[in-house]
Specification:
With about 160 residues, the chain is mostly helical. The chain has 5 helices and no strands. Helix 1 runs antiparallel to helix 2. The relative contact order is 0.13. About 5% of the residues have low confidence.
Length: about 160
């Protein structure tokens, strides 16, 4: 989990190059919102990594931070996406759904006196799938071509008026 969130931090830094100087266009506003999202994830990553797992409060601290990550994903998915990045909308929605399911399952895993390993493993799988989608979004912003199993790229003719 630490490594994937670190990757998100690196992506956030790379996204800084996308903002324009004092241009309040819809596209630049969206890019700033994406940067804010990645910064929030980097902060949550730092907070999660700072949790002392040897304390009794570790589980509740982790769940609190995961709840904050979940809120960030939901807010990100709710953003209005400009036409230039319309493909990001479905990825963000999928990521938010997967993160919500992951956090719910993490709460179930930690609900008993002992950690339910099955629920924790399922939660981690969904968490990873959500992060993969966020990484795809970062790749799209960097102009990279998405490749891999289950990825379909549909090209649209640009209409110049």
């Amino acid at each position: 989990m630490k490594k994937t969130l670190i990757v998100l931090g690196v992506l956030a830094i790379s996204l800084f190059s996308f903002t324009g100087c004092n241009d309040d266009s819809e596209l630049n506003k969206y890019k700033r919102e994406v940067e804010d999202f990645y910064e929030e994830l980097a902060e949550r990553n730092d907070a999660i990594n700072a949790i002392n797992s040897d304390t009794q409060a570790a589980s509740s601290e982790l769940l609190d931070e995961l709840d904050k990550v979940n809120v960030a994903f939901k807010e990100f998915a709710a953003l209005e996406v400009p036409r230039e990045y319309i493909s990001v909308e479905s990825l963000a929605d999928e990521a938010a759904t997967l993160m919500d399911e992951a956090v719910t399952q993490y709460h179930q895993a930690f609900a008993g006196e002992t950690i339910n390993d099955f629920d924790a493993a399922m939660a981690y799988e969904k968490y990873c799938r959500a992060i993969i989608r966020i990484n795809y979004i970062g790749d799209l912003f960097q102009g990279k071509k998405l490749e891999g199993e289950g990825i379909s790229v549909i090209y649209e003719e640009s209409s110049e008026e």
